[in-house]
Amino acid sequence: MQKPEFLTDFTVISPSAQIDPARHGWRAKCLQRLVRLELPVPETVALPASTVRAIAAGQMVDCAGILGHFGDVPLVSVRPSPENPDWGGPATILNVGFNTARHDHLARTHGQAAADALYLRFVQGYAIHVARLDPDTFEGLEPNATGLREALRSFQQEMDEPFPEDPARQLADVLRSMSRAWEGTTARLLRQAKGAPSEAALGLVVQKMAQGIGQGISGSGVIQFADPITGDPKVKGRYLGQSQGRDALTKGDAIYLTRDPRGASLEELAPEVFAELIRHGAACRGRLREEMQIEFTIEDGRLSVLDAVKVQRSARAGLKIAVALAKDGIITQSEAVLRVEPRALSELLHPQVDPRGPRDVFARGIAASPGAATGRIVFSSQAAQASASRGEPCILVRRETAPEDIRGMHSAVAVLTERGGMTSHAAVIGRGLGLPCIVGASDIRLDAKDRRLVTRDGRVFNEGDIITIDGTTGEALVGAAEMLPPAQDGAFRQLLAWADEVRDIGIRANADTPADAQTARDFSAEGIGLCRTEHMFFDEDRLVVMREMIFADTSTDRAAALARLLPMQRADFGQLFEIMRGLPVCIRLFDPPLHEFLPHSREGLRELAEALDRPLSEVTRRAEALAEFNPMLGMRGVRLGIVLPEIYDMQARAIFEATVETVRAGDPVVPEIMIPLVSARREVELVKTRIDALAAAVRTKSGVSFDYRLGVMVETPRAALRAGEIAQHASFLSFGTNDLTQMTYGLSRDDAGRFMNTYVQEGVFPEDPFHILDVDGVGELLLIGAERGRKTREKLTLSICGEHGGNPESIAFCRNAGFDYVSCSPYRVPQARLAAAHLAL
Ligand code: PEP
Ligand code: MG
Fold first, then answer.
1. Domain co-membership, 226 together with 90
2. Nearest CA to 323 among 308, 338, 311, 309?
3. Where do the PEP-utilising enzyme mobile domain residues begin and end (predicted)?
4. Which of 343, 623, 647, 723 could form a disulfide with 789 if both were Cys (CB 3.0 to 4.6 A apart)?
5. How remote is the CA of residue 629 from the centroid of ligand 1, in Å?
């Protein structure tokens, strides 16, 4: 068959027309919905993607045929209509069809000035976007007869032909130019970055122009009914008399829509049109099931609705809008849950830098813990504590943080470190505390001696200077940025309650302190999945006793020091049990190498010698003897528990004694005790024997009976591989994917930040495996461990408690693998609850 000379595959949009979003694009479909709602939409023709593609390839479309639908001498606009509005598209072109005859006609009906301005605008748009002439020649011309003459002359000069007079030819040129722009490399890359498939197609819509220029009340504007930042119901937008397109949003002399003490408003100028817009807004919301922004024109008092797009919105506005739509019965609760991206929730938990304010960025790093805070720079934990005691917010800036900085971190409002990655100390603690944190900011250099930091481009900041940490973007800003408050309001709680109704995997929190536990409870975690007990030993009074214990020469001396720690630990656990009342609490026995508890400076060692009443030389020698070449692979975790069993004994006794109290108080808990860094079954046997004996002793002594569960933390590849035999002695396995990732890759979690960027950029790793679970390697170990463990013990409880626990991807992985729960930092619990609900829907 012979190809037709002109393509005729286009459709006039009417209530019954076949408009398919996959073929004609979202805009065409949306316009049809507006037509069905009987909104005053000007005549519109939709071109499907197949036609647009053919146009790009050089075929001609029947433009005269299209224009025939719009009556005689029409002016039209052409707008892009990709399948998904986020994919962008070429700029809209207005006033296609303008020529000398149209100009003369308009001069008679609308006046010379309006006719000149409109014609000029079209010539400019056509010259720059369609004929691709130099914008400098055409921009900045006065919108009058002289400007118009000059534009037409320049066009003729550059193109060697007069400005085209035939509307069909103009339309054909515009369609060709827009379809080719869509095929360009830059446009392609831009939309692919927003998730568009490589073959994403473009539809186009040709719409009869409704003039915003002319007699009576004429103009154009944009209106929406929800605040884009807060999501609260609110009429927002602007109107500009004698204008077209989105001019009202860019020109300074636009007026308000609703009555406003600051100036004139459309509501006063044209109350009936305003009321009509409000009615249309409500119809759109109800029937399109979305908050829409409406583009409109008024021509001599008559309203036309040209277009409607989804209101652009912040994360908090998105949540508020989804919940409001569900509450009004417009969408279902499940749909509201699905409309909110889990990761977007972190924005609502903390203050955020207001995106509308100015930003002066002086350093960038890894966005390790979201939220933003402003404070004065301090370079040491002591200075942070001093600042906090003066009531002055401060930001702790360190090369990296260590356990001894914990109190400084508690005193700071945010943390910035030069080194480190997603699971470095600062990052883990920052997330736990809900403290905005940037790590691995490698373009700053710390000069701790002179107490200043210098950026790569030579900017210098001294202690006391005010900065803002934006932990959501990983940017450090000069001065105090404008902030938005957190938004854990009724809508937030409502959405999560709906999420909990459908979710089918448990969510617990990693919580070490009563404050963490309280946060976990407030965010409705179903228990504590990991309590890292070592952090309990860094408080001033305990650290001294801890060091005495470390330096004890004999088992008796060690027992004496531990006896002093026992009531403190008992009180710690008692508090956690009380806060988590009724919910499971999983306590991990002591994990880090002892060396971490010793001072690192000479000054610190001197103070320690004083406190212990021993010679400095001896203290120094003992501290050196405890140092290891590779402490993370050294004497830590269960190894310490086997070599120095008294520590675990003390902890187990403290747990059981605190448990007895809960039984006596009538609210019994069943504590879970977890052994870290296991690699062999025998390790578990040895620890279990002692712990069982201790439980029996406490039961006998107290006369109170209680239950407990003993489990193993799977953090070494060997533990995953031998999970079958390990599960003989464990009632649960919790995968510690921080160490497991470190050991599977042989990649230091504290040092990987230095080259991670390069590795990810070069595509060696698709993502930082400390951040996003490596499902191929580490994931395989999880699956092996889970399967072998459950083969031995069918009811074995399985969970993950590494930093990955809160990520939607890891939650999906664990859910598929049949895990019982995930455990993550308290501040990530809301995101995890929502992500889990998405998986179940
Ligand atoms: C882990 O290794 O995944 C874990 C949770 O323990 P930590 O981060 O305390 O080493
Ligand atoms: Mg670990």
1. no
2. 338
3. 392-474
4. 723
5. 20
Catalytic choice (801, 804, 814, 824): 801
Contact residues of ligand 1, CB 6 A cut-off: 530, 532, 591, 715, 736-739, 801-802
Closest ligand 1 atom to residue 801 Cα is 5
Would you say the C-alpha torsion 602, 604, 610, 615 has a positive or negative sign?
negative
804 a catalytic residue:
no
Ligand nearest the Cα of residue 432 is: 1
* Active-site entry in 24, 350, 425, 838: 425
The annotation places the binding site for substrate at 532, 588, 715, 736-739
Q: Are residues 203 and 255 in the same domain?
A: no
Q: Which domain holds residue 658?
A: 503-530+566-591+637-840
Q: What total number of domains does the chain contain?
A: 4
pLDDT given at position 529: 98
Assess whether 160 and 224 both reside in one domain. Answer: no
Place 140 in a pLDDT band, splitting at 50, 70 and 90: confident
Q: What is the pTM of this model?
A: 0.83
CATH number of the domain within which 732 lies: 3.20.20.60
- The alpha carbon of 586 and the centre of ligand 2 are apart by a number of angstroms equal to 14
Say if residues 703 and 711 touch (Cβ distance below 8 Å). no
Q: Report CA dihedral (689, 686, 797, 737) to the nearest 10 degrees.
A: 150
Q: What is the pLDDT of residues 172-190, one digit of tens each?
A: 999 999 999 999 888 888 8
Q: What is the pLDDT of residues 634-682, one digit of tens each?
A: 999 999 999 999 999 999 999 999 999 999 999 899 999 999 999 999 9
- Do 266 and 379 have their domain in common? no
Q: What is the CATH number of the domain that holds 203?
A: 3.30.1490.20
Could you read off the pLDDT of 411-453 as tens digits, one per residue?
999 999 999 888 888 998 888 788 999 999 988 999 877 889 9
Per DSSP, the three-state class of 376 is strand
Based on the fold, state whether residues 21 and 156 are members of the same structural domain: yes
Q: What separation, in Å, do the N-terminal and C-terminal C-alpha atoms of the chain show?
A: 49
Tell me whether residue 600 is one of the annotated catalytic residues: no
Atom of ligand 1 nearest to the CA of 737: 3
Shared domain check, 244 and 186: no
CATH number at residue 376: 3.50.30.10
Q: Are residues 575 and 451 in the same domain?
A: no
User: pLDDT, tens digit, for every residue of 541-557?
Assistant: 888 899 999 988 888 99
What type of residue sits at position 210?
Answer: A
Buried b (16+ CB within 10 A) or exposed e, 30-63: bbbbbbebebbbbbbbbbbbebbbbbbeeeebbb
In this structure, what CATH number is given to the domain that contains residue 237?
3.30.470.20
